[in-house]
């Protein structure tokens, strides 16, 4: 097993985050500094910051209705609130699957299952994620068509085609449902900026067909076995 996958299964961080931890020299394998790409077995002694990690893993899966004002990270060196503060005591070492912006609300999964986290966030998986978006004023048909066809959000970076449906509109604001199959950094906000609109509210409603039904803002619950099975087979 690769060392970054092992760390992810321990709930240390995502695979990408684990690579950063390894690069910082915080991980050793049998007393020697670990390197990205190292392979380990159950006989190897892996230590993080001088603490021995067990090879026994019990997977945990949580669904959080994230409120605004929380960072999607395991810890913050500036002491700001993170989504980990919303988990119940004894939740184990889990990490967020992907990220929602500080000011974005809605569905967030947390787990120590590195394989599932990777599948849900890998670009090639193209798993649909549904968002509620509110912008000021109206949105023209031309702007909607540009969003649906894909827009340039950074130099040379063009979004994939997506579904954009207006659900409510008046002179003050427009509400839309946006379904993406990719997850670039601040993608929806940048998409609307590209067509001259500013997002004033953003909430993730669904991953695939998994919804937040019955889960209040700031609340968290464990996923059912059926939900875990569904996500693994998306």
Question: Can you walk me through this structure?
Answer:
- This protein has 234 residues and is of the alpha+beta class.
- It has helices spanning 3-9, 15-23, 114-121, 141-149, 187-194, 225-232, and strands spanning 27-29, 32-33, 46-48, 51-52, 61-66, 95-96, 105-111, 129-136, 152-154, 157-158, 163-169, 173-180, 199-207, 210-211, 220-222.
- The strands form three sheets. Strands 5, 6, 7, 8, 11, 12, 13, 14 and 15 form a nine-stranded mixed beta sheet that branches. A four-stranded antiparallel beta sheet has the order 2-1-3-4, with no helix packed on it. Strands 9-10 form a two-stranded antiparallel ribbon.
- Strand 11 (163-169) and strand 12 form a beta hairpin.
- The relative contact order is 0.16.
SS strand fraction: 25-35%
Distance between the termini: 24 Å
Shape: elongated
Ranges with pLDDT <50 over ≥5 residues? none
Oligomer: single chain
Radius of gyration: 19 Å
Whole-number average pLDDT? Answer: 93
**Which sheet architecture does the biggest sheet show?**
9 strands, mixed
Count the E strands. 15
| Total helical elements | 6
The sequence of SSEs as H and E is HHEEEEEEEHEHEEEEHEEEH
| Sheet/helix structural class | alpha+beta
Helix share bin: 10-25%
């Amino acid at each position: 097993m690769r060392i970054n996958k092992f760390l992810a299964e321990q709930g240390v961080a995502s695979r990408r985050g684990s690579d950063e931890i390894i690069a910082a020299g915080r991980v050793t394998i049998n007393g020697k500094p670990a390197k990205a790409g190292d392979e380990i077995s159950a006989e190897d002694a892996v230590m993080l910051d001088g603490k021995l990690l067990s090879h026994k893993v019990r997977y945990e899966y949580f669904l959080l209705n994230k409120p605004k004002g929380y960072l999607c990270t395991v810890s913050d060196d500036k002491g700001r609130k993170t989504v980990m503060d919303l988990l119940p005591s004894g939740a184990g070492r889990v990490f967020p699957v992907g990220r929602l912006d500080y000011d974005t609300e809605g569905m967030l999964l947390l787990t120590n299952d590195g394989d599932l986290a990777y599948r849900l966030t890998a670009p090639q998986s193209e798993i649909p994620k549904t968002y509620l978006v509110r912008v000021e004023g109206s949105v023209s048909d031309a702007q909607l068509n540009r969003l649906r066809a894909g827009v340039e959000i950074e130099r040379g970076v063009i979004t994939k085609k997506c579904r954009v449906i207006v659900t409510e509109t008046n002179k003050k604001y427009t509400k839309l449902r946006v379904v993406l199959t990719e997850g670039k950094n601040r993608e929806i906000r940048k998409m609307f900026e590209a067509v001259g609109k500013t997002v004033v509210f953003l909430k993730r409603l669904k991953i695939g067909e998994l919804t937040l039904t019955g889960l209040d803002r700031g609340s968290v619950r464990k996923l059912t076995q059926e939900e875990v099975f569904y996500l693994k087979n998306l």
